[in-house]
Design a protein that fits this description.
alpha/beta, 269 residues, methyltransferase activity, globular, 7-stranded mixed sheet, Methyltranfer_dom, 11 helices, Class I SAM-dependent methyltransferase, EC 2.1.1.-
């Protein structure tokens, strides 16, 4: 088989299914909204600085931010746009984003409750469409097509570089099997097969949910990605934590490098 014969969209779906990654409910994200606003929307956040640096905003007045969370991207660019639209399926995230927009005196922000799978026919087409750290979806090809349709000029998406959110050493330490997730290479190849020629750059990030100043926070970060831990797993994780602390080794839950996959909006047949 040669690369032209591969169906990368189908491969992505199969990979995601094998990973047995459960869909996180809106309520799950509601509970994380305050913490994400605190940790992932800081003005000097290394990820956001890298994201904004790679964007071309010339001749653009409107922006759509899909999976906007607490408004990290859309609020960060609102002062450079006539109008920005933030979409998310979590009411809690939208409430936090609204509070932050009001606190900053931003009057050009529209927040809309919407999921990737929903109808977008009433969503305005914007000069720029963005999906920041929100692209691990059930059908990646459909998501990329939607973003492309919503953009007049440019589309910016970010995807994980590593195939695991958590350091594999931690996963093995608690006794679980290391299961990989789809990374940015699927997006690049799916876009190519759609007739779009994307560009790729990389953002090195300290990881907004990756820092741990205590064991409780470390355990919370691990459970955030892997799901609830049982008691034996917690004991093994404590041992891992204490061993690294005694050896003065850095305690980070994982690699937070991101791939920016972006392209000029392209009419598709």
């Amino acid at each position: 088989m040669i690369i032209e014969e591969l169906d990368f969209a189908a491969m992505y779906r199969e990979h995601l299914q094998r990973a047995e990654r459960s869909h996180k409910s809106a309520e799950h994200w509601d509970k994380r909204a305050e913490k994400m606003a605190e940790n992932c929307a800081r003005p000097k956040d290394s990820y956001l600085e890298g994201f904004f640096k790679l964007m071309d905003l010339s001749d653009c007045d409107t922006l759509l931010d899909m999976g906007c969370g607490p408004g990290s991207v859309c609020l960060g660019l609102a002062d450079k746009m006539q109008a920005v639209y933030g979409l998310d399926y979590s009411s809690g995230m939208l409430e936090v984003a609204k509070r932050r927009a009001d606190a900053e005196g931003l009057s050009n922000v529209t927040l809309i409750k919407r999921a990737w799978e929903d109808d977008w026919s009433d969503i305005p087409v914007c000069d720029i469409a963005v999906a920041s750290r929100s692209t691990l979806v059930g059908c990646l090809k459909s998501a990329l097509e939607k973003l492309n349709r919503q953009a007049r000029k440019r589309v910016y998406t970010t995807h994980t570089v590593s195939s695991t959110f958590i350091d594999p050493a931690i996963i093995q330490a608690i006794g679980r099997k290391v299961v990989t997730l789809p990374n940015y290479l699927y997006a690049v190849n799916i876009l190519q097969q759609m007739g779009i020629k994307p560009k790729v750059d990389f953002i090195e990030s300290s990881g907004c949910m990756n820092q741990a100043e205590s064991y409780a926070q470390f355990e919370d970060n691990v459970a955030w990605s892997l799901g609830p831990l049982d008691e034996p797993e917690k004991l093994r994780l404590q041992e891992y934590y204490q061993r690294h602390k005694q050896q003065d080794k850095p305690l980070r839950t994982g690699d937070r490098s991101w791939a920016m996959v972006y392209w000029d909006a392209t009419p598709l047949s």
